[in-house]
User: Fold these one by one.
Assistant:
Number 1:
Amino acid sequence: MINKETPVLVTGGSGYIASWVVQQLLEQGYKVNATVRNKSKIAKVDHLLGLQKKFPGKLALYEADLLKEGSFKESMKGCELVIHMASPFKVNVKDAQKELIDPALKGTSNILKQVNDTPTVKRVVLTSSVAAIYGDAADIEGTKNGVFTEEYWNTSSSLKHQPYSYSKTVAEKEAWKIQGEQSRWDLVVINPSFVMGPSLSNRTDGESTDFMIQLLSGSFKTGVPYLSFGFVDVRDVAAAHILAGTKESASGRHITCAVSKTMLEAGAILRKEFGNKYKLPSRELPKFLMYLVGPFAGFSWKFVSNNVGIPMSFDNSYSKKDLGLVYRDLSETFKEQVDQLVESGHVK
Ligand code: NAP
């Protein structure tokens, strides 16, 4: 469907997931235009410079900022496929409007306005999140069969409560609205759960890498709250984006989640693989204790009440049916992520 002579635009190309998308596109013979905020920040783009050497003439880097109108014009020129991944993924923020909502929402709107002005674009793939499907674990009580599917939208998050989830919800809604106002290009959305697995860069500032480092380094040694998440391998999420962009028949939203696990179960997978090499959590903290200590660790009472102790379940069948996605086993994902962190010197 996509002509391999035209470049594929990947926004936020230096990010944790986007870097895998860029690499897999190059391996499949596509040309890629990747945007980054600052080309001179070597720590952020070094691995992309390595890919430029490995795939000569196939990867071009552009500077662009989500908040600057027209910023993506040059990088989008001649593209048939746009994969929009750039959006801040941060859980602890001081000013949620400025740090999360504005870049997510205005960024999506800026990029899609540019798509409207770029006649070659046929399809946009948007990286949303399961955070646009649910806000709190307790939302599962409102589902028909106790499982989240693509038919649900997050209605419990706001600027004050779970603002990251709110940013993903308003951005995805805006994307569907803008797409619905025209018929030249279509929109396919990927809604990943918590993404884990090896990083192509040496950065540790992302939430996915930070979560693994915290698990291994003993931050939860005294115990973890019962919090349940969907987990998925970064390479499978990257593959989902490329399938969503290149399969003519792909449509709609796609939950991408291999399996749901609690934090304690995640620790147990690591213990099975690495024995007692790391200070992994071995017990769960009772919910009443979370009410007491939670606020000091950034968990509000509302968060504790609506999330701690509630199991999660996601239906990933549409991603398998529509995209043909095959999921890696979580133990493989975790093992290869730890190996990469050890090799890069971030974990002993
Ligand atoms: P990441 O490594 O932090 O990537 C975020 C990217 O967004 C970075 O490339 C960052 O650029 C870029 N960005 C942030 N603000 C920007 C701005 N104002 N202008 C231009 N670019 C900006 O995180 P990630 O985990 O790969 O996340 C990528 C996407 O996946 C996000 O949309 C996130 O919401 C979504 N997602 C992630 C997960 C997960 O578990 N990791 C799960 C579901 C959905 P810099 O490199 O310059 O910082």
Number 2:
Amino acid sequence: MTEIAVTGAAGRMGREVLAAAADRDDITVAFAVNRSSVAEPISGVAVDSSDDFAALLADYEPAVVVDFTAPDSTIDYANACAEAGVAFVTGTTGFEPSQPAALHAASESTAVLKASNFSRGVAALRLAVQEATAALPDADIELTETHHNAKRDAPSGTAKTLLDDIEGVRDDLNDRVHGREGEAPRDDDEIGVHARRAGDIAGEHEVLLGGSNETLSLTHRAGDRSIFAEGALDAADWLAGREPGWYDFFEVIESA
Ligand code: NAD
């Protein structure tokens, strides 16, 4: 049984994590926090304010913190976990380029696993995209992601991960063009990136590879957020008790 704490517990993902944890017999929730406390328990768990997070870690001694919040708070929670020697799983996205260094620094003192997407289908999509990119070295590549209307960051963290994967295979592609307007002919070194926001869509990512007389489209659609919560809890269970260091969701998948 892995004892976890949940941050951002009243957010969309925090609620999913608490609901998924309640249904699992390998995970128990030691405590849950939100920026401000919440009157009613969520999935049977009381949600405190995170004002004295370090004290809560010291009192409850969870094995792992599972975090889906926002970049600044994720770094604060990671630092508190590093101080307390508590493993840290985060799915937060939208970091400024300078920010992940702080998470890497925390991983010198505790185990840290960060993933822009905790879906196993997206992990499979990443592998398929890398293979297709290598197999079609002349293709024009365009990426489109679609999310709910309250998503803060664009393009999504998953889109950025897919772009990194594509650029890792095709070093001739080094210009991410975010949408097009007016006279905007395509250059050979571009990857077009398109972010749509509508309704309550949990997350869709399409990578389109266009060549002469043929196109290949690779698409993942999340049915609901529970897949991300289950993946994050799998990661927490796997990370508990590991040495300080930086870990990857592929390691969790490969261990199963
Ligand atoms: P949300 O806005 O519904 O919830 C965010 C929670 O974080 C809220 O409870 C909010 O109170 C809390 N929070 C925000 N700023 C805070 C601060 N400064 N201090 C303390 N708490 C703070 O968002 P969401 O839809 O649950 O998404 C959260 C994050 O997870 C986003 O970055 C999103 O992109 C990401 N996400 C990742 C995955 C994945 O698989 N990795 C899946 C879905 C969402």
Number 3:
Amino acid sequence: MLQPGSTIGMLGSGQLGRMFALAARRLGYRVNVYSPDNDSPLGQMADVEFVASYDDLDQIRDFARTVDVITYEFENVPAATAQAAEAIVPVRPGQAILEVAQHRVREKSSLRDLGLPVPKFEVIKSVEDLTNAVGVIGTPCVIKSATTGYDGKGQAVVKADSDLAAVWNSLGTKEAILEQFIEFETEFSMIGARGLDGSFTSYGPIENRHHNHILDVSLMPIAYPESARQTAEDALRTVMAKYDVVGVLCIEFFLTKTGNVIVNEIAPRPHNSGHLTIEACECSQFEQQLRAVCGLPLGSSRQHSPAAMANLLGDVWEHGEPDWSKSLENPSSFLHLYGKTNPRVGRKMGHLTYLDKSSEQAAIEVARLRAQIARR
Ligand code: AMP
């Protein structure tokens, strides 16, 4: 067990790392960060900052020697980087889940092999493969590049009249996956934490509403049929046990009109949809990540207040610095800013969490507040 006072190494320096560090600092841990970026959300507050490429294995080894355990806040950590670090200190969650989470073909195949419900899919390596697969799966369907796609990037909906050669060329990738289009009713996530001793706890379902392929609002609790919640929790337990995940893992699901649950994707780290656990639950997703990777007992995931979270994208800055007083004067509103300069459209700059009598009411209030904050 790594006691308070130990040093955690974080690969990646974005807002997920920053919120992890806030939880870790409260419990007396030190946090060293490694990432290629200067003046980053976590770099601004880490104990020691390494600014270098993930491919610089000598630097990675030097970094690993300064910490007691390593975790990460994004899943595209190169395999060689994780291996070099793992030769010196534990990396949690380990390599097995990283390999699965960073490649959509491996991800979907392993989920299917575990017996979990995934959309029908085919592997695509050429425009010929695409033509054949569209014949098998039917239209509409969704093509996604196998690597480095997130927030809807590197993907396209294929329709009956789509020009398949143009679709394939626009992806600019060597390998992709073609998926059946799911006519979902809603999207939701479940977030699990698994300890060094195999103990398990989870949050959710958390309902996720997207705008322009980016998460817009999340709310919890949500009254889905118990069978849907159970299927989702079983999926979390299955994946985390199979890959011996020590840490936090999120699964995003589709819920169909007929109540079927289908797995969309997994992320072996805290997730944007779980930010509301900071104010709404006894122990947040970030503290669970800390507890898990340090071998501490997991905390209580119990939710004590209905909540909703709204992302603050760079768009909110369109007409100048937002009017924060609208949030700060409201005791039900909790403002988080990630220390980023340069508010580009679509860039996650911060979020608002709102606590209320019901999560639906919180979702209405948080959206209203975000609109009030933006200058016109
Ligand atoms: P992803 O990057 O896989 O999370 O996809 C981003 C968003 O695209 C999802 O949140 C869905 O709204 C939509 N999407 C992805 N895959 C499918 C699918 N197979 N059927 C319908 N919508 C999808």
Number 4:
Amino acid sequence: MKLNHIVEVQQFRKKELLEEVFSLTERMERLDETGDSSLLLSHTPRKKILATLFYEPSTRTRLSFESAMKRLGGEIISTEDAPHFSSMVKGETLEDTIRVVASFSDLIVLRHYEEGSAKRASLVSPVPIINAGDGPGQHPTQALLDLYTIKKELGRINNLKVGLLGDLLYSRTIHSLVWLLANQENIEFYFISPEPLRIPSDITVYLREKDIFFKENCNLYDISSILDVLYVTRLQKERFRNKEAYNAVVGSYVVDKEILLSLKPDTKILHPLPRTSELPSDIDLDPRAVYFKQAENGLYIRMALLKMILE
Ligand code: CP
């Protein structure tokens, strides 16, 4: 199936498309073993160029996209700190920047602090745009790698009880993952967050409309023993309106050893990373903690997406 812009995860509603992405991702994961050169980008008439345009900090998303492009034999150009080192400093609009960068590249991966920015970029760009996070909006490629990780670790993406713990209001990875999971069969959502950081109402309205089970305001200790997946996020400190609002919730949740004792032996703990105090490093060796494997899966998912978009 042909992919062009990736702006929101709802674009992956079609089962066949998701299956195609995951199947290609599995092949990308084994590329070093198989040496299957048909997985690489074809270079006629020249090498393909990926532009990474980041207006917010990133470790995983930018570097995994850049590594993915290089592993496929392509080239990259990059602005990692666009608010300081792009012509935005001189007053250039996002739309103008996109038009110009598009003339230098075959695809643009964009991270921006404003919700809706990827959509705006896609409306003026002659080359595909991939949303690498638009403010508190969405992070669709993260949701794809999250779901791929669940599939690999549990062998299924249906019939799951999923606990989502943390900053559900501002976390774009949570928003995208819930939209994506809501399209799978027999998913139960358990939302666990500090009161001011509850899941946005557009999501709960949708879940109600579709008759999908969810429970808000859960106590982690009450539900931990039934979960198949515990997905944790940090407080999105950069999105809080003021210091007081942040100080009121900081340290209010943590996945500690007591929680680990209450989880099932096969529950998987995911986190998009980076983490802060909510996920102490002393649980990293627990076999249920799969967040570093999850980050690695981002590389393979992004290789598959680049291949599908560019060819
Ligand atoms: N998960 C994620 O988006 O990480 P980065 O902010 O490091 O890209």
